[in-house]
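Aim 2, interim progress. The first record below pairs a target sequence with its C-alpha cells.
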Amino acid sequence: MPDRLTQLQDCLEQLATQFYASLRYLSSHHSSSSTLPPNPHVPPFPPSDTNPHQRPDTPTTFAGAQRELASDLVEKVKEIEGLTGMLPGLEKSEESQVARLRQLEEELRMAENERKAAVSERAECLERLEEVIGRVGRVKS
C-alpha cells in the first residue's frame, strides 16, 4: 500500500482528470440554447451545427449527468480532505513532533542492538555447529 503522500498525489491527479472530463462532457453535450441572458461583453457560442463534436443531450439527461459529475467531484474532494487530515504534523506542535522523533530514534537504536545480538548469536551457533560437524567427520573417518 502506498504511503499517504503518494495516495494524496494520486487523488489530486484523479481530481484533475475528473475536472477535465467533466468540462469536456459539459462543453460537448450542452444544448446551444442558453439559460442566461445575453452578455454584450461575451461573444455567443457558435451554433451546434458548426461543431461536429457536439452531441447535445436532452435537458433531463444533461441535468442528471451534471448532478453525477458534481457528486463524483465532491466525493473525490472528501477523499482528499480525509487523506490530508491523516497527514502527520497538522495537529501537533513542533515540540511534540521532535519528541516523537527522539522516541522513534531510541526505538531504532534498541532494535539495532537486538539485531546485532541476534547476528552474534547466529555466528556463535554457526561456529558450534561447524565444530560438531567436524567432530562427527573425524569420528567416521
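The second target in this work package is listed in the same format:
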Amino acid sequence: MSTENIFVTHKPDPKWIAVDGYTLSHLHPESNAHHKLLNDVLINIRDQGLPDISTYPVLAKFLALQCRIGKVEHALEIGTLGGYTAIWIATQNPKIHVTAVEIDPRRAEVAGQNIKIAGVADRVTVIVGAGLDVIPKLQEEINAGKRPKFGFVYIDADKLNNWAYFQETIPMTLPGGCIFVDNIVRKGNIVCEEYQGDEGVIGARQVIEGAGKDERVDAVVLQTVSEKNYDGVLMAVVK
C-alpha cells in the first residue's frame, strides 16, 4: 500500500519509495482485509484538507505490531490528526482500546468519521483538547481507579512539548510499557548547528537529552527513511 499517489508534498529518495512499495506489497498486500480501508482513511484525510503529516504506513504498522508484541490492552496517542495510526493499532489488535488526544476540533471530527467508518469506534476514543490539559485528567482517572494504566504511548503532536508530554505520560505507563516519540531525527537536523533554533529540533533534542537522564526509562533513537521522509523515532521502555 504505497501512498506515493496520495501525498505529494515530500520529496524523498526514489529508492525509499520503491522499498516501501515493494515490502508493503508483500507484507501488507491488497488482499489484506484492512488494506483498502487504511488507504481510504489516508485519502479521506487528504480530501478533508488536513495536512500531510500522518504517520507513514510502514511505521504505523510497526507501532501496531509493537502493541501486539506487548499484548497491550490500552494505548494512548497524543496527536491523532485524522485517526490513521489509531486505526492501524486498533485493526491489528482486536482487544485493544486506544485513547487518542487531538487539540484541533476539525481534525478530531475527521478522525471520528474515519474511526466510525473503520468499524473501531467502540475501541478508539477521541478526546478533544490540548495534550497538557488532557493528560493530567487521565492521570486523575488512573489514580482514582477509573482508568487502567497504558501499555503503549505514541507522541506525535506539537514538537516543543515533546519533553512535557514524555514526562507526564511516564507515570501513566505500565512497567515494561513503551513510549514512542515521532519526528525525532528531522532529516538529521538535530545535529546541524544551523537548525538549533528550529522548534522541532529544540523539542527533539530536549526529549532525547531528557530521556537519557531520566532513570525511570531506558531509551533509544531509531533513524528511519521512508516514502515520506528521513526522520526517526525515540522509543523508551518504562522501568
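The two ends are 36 Å apart (CA to CA). This observation will shape the mutagenesis plan for the next reporting period.
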